[in-house]
Amino acid sequence: MSVSLSKGGNVSLSKAAPSMKNVLVGLGWDARSTDGQDFDLDASAFLLAANGKVRGDSDFIFYNNLTSSDGSVTHTGDNRTGEGDGDDESLKIKLDAVPSDVDKIIFVVTIHDAQARRQSFGQVSGAFIRLVNDDNQTEVARYDLTEDASTETAMLFGELYRHNGEWKFRAVGQVMLVVWHLYVLSTALTRPDRKVTFHPGC
């Protein structure tokens, strides 16, 4: 049975799905009525070391960099409409392949070109993140976001993290520093001389 999480709640993967080796993280949302412009949300993942920083640009997984250099995390592709039931975007994680110096993997959703289109999460409903055992397609945990983020354009939905030698999943629902995220999008993979670091907002 899937564990329903509230904000800040966590679940131990070794207890909820002890044999799970391959994880699918599904993210979904529905756009409310707007002025007719396209509403494009993008999911991304960051592999973070214990100091809260990525080790390099390849630890930023998004629509323009679909797989981490070690092959442990893969983005299944960009969905530019968010239409239809189920997951709008998803990422796959091979737990055994995640490097030992990666302490956590965070999952972020941003609104593409939000400022120009005057769009925010206040126009989004039914947002969720769920954890699925990709070996048997069984849902392990789910978090339905209910927070008021009427003016925000980037949110941290959830995270996989190591704790005492095991993997856990936490429901976060936290606002991101939009300026930082836009900086990452504009420099990652295009400026190899610039090292990307993670610094969350609150």
From TrEMBL:
Q: Which InterPro entries match?
A: Stress/Tellurium_Resist, TerD
Source organism, top-level taxon: Bacteria
A GO BP term here is: response to tellurium ion
| Keyword annotations from UniProtKB, A to Z | Plasmid, Tellurium resistance
Specify the TerD domain's residue ranges: 1-175
Described purpose of this protein according to its UniProt entry:
Not known; seems to contribute to the tellurium resistance (Ter) mechanism. Also involved in phage inhibition (Phi) and colicin resistance (PacB).
**Protein name as catalogued:** Tellurium resistance protein TerD
Q: Which gene encodes it?
A: terD
